[in-house]
Amino acid sequence: MDDSENPSIIIGIDFGSTSSSAAFLHPNSRTKEIQALHYWPSALKWSFDQVPRGAEIQSIVYYDPYIEVVGWSGNREEVVTAQGNLKPGIQATPSFKAQLFPPTDEFRNGLLPPGKTVEDVTVDFLSHFRRSVLEQPELAWRDSRGSFQFVMTVPAFWSDETRGEFREIAKMAGFDQAGEKLELVSSLEAALFNAHFTRPSCFNQGDNILVLDCGGHLVEGSTYHVKSTSPLRIDRRTSVSVASCGSAEVTRQFTAIAGSKIDKARFPAHGRTKPRMRLRAKRAFEKELVFGDTLGRPGFKFELPPEMSDGFWVADLGVEMDCPEADLVEGYMVFSEDEVYSCFDAVVERTLGLVREQVQAMQEQNVQIQSCLLVGGFNRCHYYNRKVKSGIWEYGVTTIEVNNKTVPFAKGAVLAGFMP
Q: Among 189, 301, 329, 407, which is least packed, fewest CB within 10 Å?
């Protein structure tokens, strides 16, 4: 820690593929409480995919018809209509982060604005994100420019060369200016720092901890040896296992099933009705099943209208019609139990394949993993979380989940900033 008269304010930034967040701590704070930043522009607090995010915002850039960035001012109407929909003419670019230095060619490229590269979109997002961070009320009392130490999370599988390329992108976005500092920390290490700070007894000196980050697009894991706990010192013992099997892959699987049904509905192929139906189905699936609080809980059952009681779950697609061949009843599309669970089970299997890689890598060193720190937003899905934990337990490894749902990676990045 800098003990000078005006030490830097440490700002942790979690730059995720689906959500981003920030937290800070002033070194002179008496309580040493790390605070999450909450005051984001209202258009950014509005979620394009309608998934609640709390103190986080969606990692997304909105462009107007002239390919200018909008949505970061106080005017929500730049992006959102009075009815709560995306304003006509605005192009949304979610998932751009997943296109930036992906682990393999598995990721399907998303649409980018004309003339924009993924690096350009990343600069646009980070520059506005940085400006919004520094304009938040909690930081408004700062007494001088250049008194910030930014610590930003990056995927653990990124090489030193990739980190260097990303640092150049961050510089173009305004980070690492004269008098400021920019440090990069892997999301897995940030998770370890946050877990130890929140619950110091969750692991001991000498433990080997598998950290498994189940995120929006990627799931990655690696095993760390705890060299000491006061202060926390860790050493990575394995290569990073990574795959594109996050919650977005579950949504992709579902979208394919729903799209096949919708194609059978009696609507013009080139009209606007079918795309709207697909979007409504996708949003309902993510909100109610992927990030809802029902699927996977013991004894749960979805409440269905009597005429649809043979189904497992239904999505309101906003149309008034029946189409048996499309499983559409009074505007509700009916999905079977097998259809829903098939979207999750392949992803669970790939996740457990990463766990298996880590267990085998440690066995080759004649060392056993004591615990698995399970982190990442995908764990909010009870079904996925329960299946993954069950698979981990089969290896004789206990699981650790720290009850700290408020920007844990950003807080872990702040803590990493204190390490010499």
A: 301
